[in-house]
Specification:
Elements (H helix, E strand, L loop, with lengths): L2 H25 L11 H32 L13 H12 L10 H4 L1 E2 L10 H6 L7 H10 L10 E9 L8 E8 L8 E8 L11 E13 L2 E13 L11
Parallel strand pairs: 1-4, 4-6
Antiparallel strand pairs: 2-3, 2-5, 3-4, 5-6
Helix pairs in contact: 1-2, 1-3
Length: about 250
């Protein structure tokens, strides 16, 4: 393959990557792949790739003019198979629809009812946060890192998550779950908070719900974890940002 044609394909692939990442950023789906704190850096990378692609197009144009003036075009590029290393990731991103992790990932990733990978630095702040403003991650962090759980027992909780049924739970119980992403979806792990509701059997796996009720403590796998004695379970749309970020 002539070198200029090779460079043109490289530039087109870079431009395609720019369009792909830019469209995901614009639609808000970029955080299906990465932690939201990396979005500005990714956008900077998109701009850099766009500049690089434009530079390659410009260099190709100057090279073509130079070759026509000197009547030669004998440069050869690296093997064209190298282009597949750029094309395959782009094809995967385009052909596989973007969607957040759900309970189907539990089989490979498992799930936690405690948060061993999350720092306890903010536990003091969570202690002061209104109980109904805490999410699943917040409640589990508190039960992990606070030795005196008495102040939390009986508090009102209001959490959003997707439903997951597990054979380890008792009758009328289900997990309200969220995935926590530290860096990217590859390192995402699920946290699950037990909920108890008389009509739990009417819920569908993976459906998103808002659970409101009173917090109690229960022992699961030799650990004390929070349980919501649900007063109401309301179906809600999937949040615009389904992941939680530590």
């Amino acid at each position: 393959m002539p070198k200029r044609l090779y460079r043109s394909f490289q530039a087109l692939l870079l431009l395609g990557m720019c369009v792909f990442l830019g469209s995901k950023a614009a639609s808000g789906q970029l955080t299906y792949y990465i932690n939201q704190r990396f979005v500005p850096l990714t956008i900077f990378g998109v701009i850099f790739l766009a500049v690089l692609a434009q530079t390659m197009f410009s260099e190709n144009k100057r090279s073509r003019q130079h070759d026509s003036e000197h009547d030669h075009d004998h440069d050869h590029a690296p093997a064209s198979s190298n282009l597949w290393f750029m094309l395959v990731p782009l094809l995967i991103g385009v052909l596989i629809p973007a969607r957040p992790l759900d309970s189907s990932a539990f089989a490979t990733k498992g799930f936690n009812t405690n948060s061993p990978l999350v720092s306890a630095d903010s536990s003091a702040q969570l202690f002061e946060t209104d109980s109904e403003d805490r999410n699943v991650l917040d409640w589990i962090k508190l039960f992990n890192y606070e030795t005196n759980l008495a102040p939390f027992i009986g508090q009102k909780a209001s959490v959003i998550g997707f439903v997951y049924f597990d054979e380890t739970l008792g009758e009328n119980q289900f997990f309200v779950s969220r995935f926590v992403v530290s860096c990217c979806a590859a390192d995402g792990f699920a946290l699950a908070m037990i909920s108890e509701w008389p009509q739990a059997a009417t819920l569908e796996q993976d459906s998103w719900v808002l659970v409101k009720g009173v917090v109690k403590s229960v022992t699961l796998n030799d650990r004390v974890v929070p349980l919501i004695q649900a007063e109401s379970v309301q179906a809600v749309p999937e949040p615009e940002q389904p992941y939680l970020f530590p």
